[in-house]
Amino acid sequence: MSTSAEGNAPAWQAEIxxxxxxxxxxxxxxxxxxxxxxxxxxALGKKGSVTALMKRVGALPPDERRAYGAAAxxxxxxxxxxxxxxSDALAQARLQAELDDRSFDETLVGSSTRxxxxxxxxxxxxxxxxxxxxxxxxxxxxxxxxSEFSNFEALNIPSWHPARDMQDTFWLDAxxxxxxxxxxxxVRTMHRLGGxxxxxxxxxxxxxxxxxxxxxxxxxxxxxxxxxxxxPAAGGPGVSVGHLLDAMRTLLSAIFGEAxxxxxxxxxxxxxxxxxxxxxxxxxxxxxxxxxxxQSGWLELLPCGLVHPNVLRMGGLDPDQWxxxxxxxxxxxxxxxxxxxxxxxxxxxxxARFCEPFVAGC
Length: 362
Ligand code: FA5
What we know:
single chain, alpha+beta, BirA Bifunctional Protein, domain 2, 2 domains, seven-stranded mixed sheet
């Protein structure tokens, strides 16, 4: 059926050789990966010319099929190999062109990436957590969205109480609010850890609906401290204002690396009795008076006191059996004092330059 004009060689031999030669020329002429890919599809794809060769084997006389299959298979292998070789050669040429490109100077120093820094609030918070952990305190975390109950009622501040006006509140729906102070975690902690003496701190972000100035933000950080022990009447050591002050002094000297001048004033908070305000001498101005301390030389930093019996009751603790002290440290203000930051509003401004001096602390 299919012998060539010159003699015995079947016609398909010349046909396969011609196709192979055409493809070899096309592959050699292809000068990018897309052109090569097209040739590959046209030759080896489902409807490709080489694939078509393979399909024709059934139409040949049985005695030619074996030789035909071998020749078509060899053509397919040769085309695949030529495609791969050309692809390698093109990649190599591309690389060489990049290396030859004199506009690229591989001896130039690379540009450096900017290093991040730990925010000073986090640095001081870590220090405080270390100091209190070493004194046996748990470090707890509570939600920023809390209930009116935790934030006020559980702290002996019912809805009619004038003390609610001391902390202007961002109200949410259905008795929820953005906590105005970390004290919102006090009663929850008593339920969680009570029944045994315990010590805990709970640092966090708090929110107040108030106008801002150099020392007031609507969003700032506090650290709450709470210590509960058995009353002497219940055979325990009890807790005292002396112990509270001692813990506060330990904390402040650890933060500032030296003894800090403090003063204690009576302070009113419905959830402590007696209550105090612990102020520290303004380190921004050395006590001379500045915008941070509102010219007074002192900065209100650390309200504290002995836990009110009503709050102990709310926490499921019998005030005849249990006593406690609590403090609510203004962490943002402490950070300002430690690093001489003149305006609290810089703290959460989101300006990356604010953190640059603290890169070394990472
Ligand atoms: C309270 O928030 C009480 N929960 C503290 C407390 C806890 C008292 C436990 C007794 C026992 P006060 O509203 O004073 O108290 O806030 C505590 C501290 O947070 C202040 O001393 C001050 O350092 C800081 N602070 C208060 N308001 C702001 C504000 N707007 N911006 C920055 N810091 C503030």
